Amino acid sequence: MRLLLVSGSLRAGSTNTALLRTALEVVPTGTDARLYAGLERLPHFNPDDDRELPPVAVRELRAELGWADAVLFSTPEYAGALPGSFKNLLDWAVGGGELSDLPVAWINASGPAAPTGAAGAHDSLRTVLGYTGSVIVEEACVRLPVLRQNLGPDGLIAAPDLRGRLASVLGVLIARVRQRLPEP
Q: In whole angstroms, what is the distance from residue 19 CA to residue 131 CA?
């Protein structure tokens, strides 16, 4: 089972990225998980550049998506929608086909100051993923409010309750994916 974790934030101290970095520590045994780290290197989407040999960063993104049995996204909301850089990543993923029929879910780390919990970003994400043909695992799409004080000195979530909830979300997504995978 291979799980790709994709943060929609470029912010160095992003709680969404901290959530995914913590996921690497609490992912169930038998799952190979990795964090995609190329968001800032992707060129602006241009259909003219989406040809037989797209830019290197796009090929790397598509290879990561092609490797995965499932993807877990975590993204903030800016101005009521997805951050532009994250939408750009998704635009590159639409044409590649790697997300087609791939189980996906999302989590959001918005704290209490964001009462809608990034609902606009999630609505936008749902719309875009509809174009990719992804399989949204609804029961793994959750809000896990992470406050700065929930992070330890290593930048990971230290709060045991949040770590437990994150492990549960991962367990739900992975169980759903394992139902779809052929027996070894």
A: 26
CATH code, residues 2-180:
3.40.50.360
Secondary structure of the chain as H, E, C letters: CEEEEEECCCCCCCHHHHHHHHHHHHCCCCCEEEECCCHHHCCCCCHHHCCCCCCHHHHHHHHHHHHCCEEEEECCCECCECCHHHHHHHHHHHHHCCCCCCEEEEEECCCCCCCCCCHHHHHHHHHHHHHHCCEECHHHCEECCCCHHHECCCCCECCHHHHHHHHHHHHHHHHHHHHHCCCC
**Domain spans, the chain:** 2-180
Q: Is 79 left (phi over 0), alpha (psi -120 to 50) or beta?
A: left
What span, in angstroms and rounded, lies between the C-alpha atoms of 118 and 112? 11
What does each C-alpha distance from 125 to 27, 88, 120, 162, 179 come to in angstroms? 23, 12, 9, 23, 24
Q: What is the mean pLDDT of residues 21-36?
A: 96
What are 107-151's pLDDT values in tens digits?
988 766 665 667 788 899 999 999 999 999 999 999 898 888 889
